[in-house]
Design goal:
The chain is of the alpha/beta class. 30% of the residues lie in helices and 21% in strands. The protein contains 7 helices and 11 strands. It has a 4-stranded mixed β-sheet with strand order 4-7-6-8, with helices on one face. It has a 3-stranded mixed β-sheet with strand order 5-11-9. A two-stranded antiparallel ribbon has the order 1-10. The two termini are 32 Å apart.
Length: 257
Amino acid sequence: RQRRVHGVIGDMYTEILSFSLSSLERALPEGAVQDVLLFTTAQWEPSLAEYLGRCGRAAHPRLRLRVAVVHLLEIPDAVCFVRYQMLLMDIVRPYTKVLYMDVDMVFLSSPASLFSVAVDASKFYYCQEGTRKGFRDGLLFSLGGKWAFTAEELARFETEDIVPFNAGFFVAHTDKTSSGHAAALLAFALREIKAGTPHFTDQSFANHYMNTRGLANTRALSPLVFGFFHCDINSPDVFDFPNTTALVHFLGCGYTS
């Protein structure tokens, strides 16, 4: 049996954001209010400010929306690294942990269970994407392609059940340990980019860095986000997916929030 979502995913940043926020608000338990931090860039900040001033805050009364402008790193696809830069910003300090999600995601049920996860500050909690075969196929989950990982690393991945993850959704602590790991990952990515290391996106760096150092946990969230489902925004069946799906991630929108 299939569930169909009725809505329009537009090409504009604020249309996608509005759709995502509306889904989150509808999924909240009755009477609940949720803090939402909107991380944006100087390019998109005027559009976001205009949207929030015109109708955004009024349209989402159960979401306490706050905006933070992130200064992009001078590297290709810099917007993708905002998800780790946010952990270095003061705006997250009042919170014990944060749930990061790309803007091109839609909730079909409450995210409350995600916040109940006991988070170890030494780990980042992701959702699995694909299988270990992905570590050896192309650049999506590794640096340098086929020979990205040593035989010893691949054997350890097998033994410790380490699998690829999607970088667009994670839970992390906000203390100095987590921010230290985020800073180290950013430094690693900058170094590898300058060295010309083949890669796909920030996901290549995150999977390589986090998995080789044992910093990624893909087990804790997967049972809770059992419906973490990816679909291609350009696919004709973009709105068709199993009725057990709790969260939809529209691949290919290319926006970060």
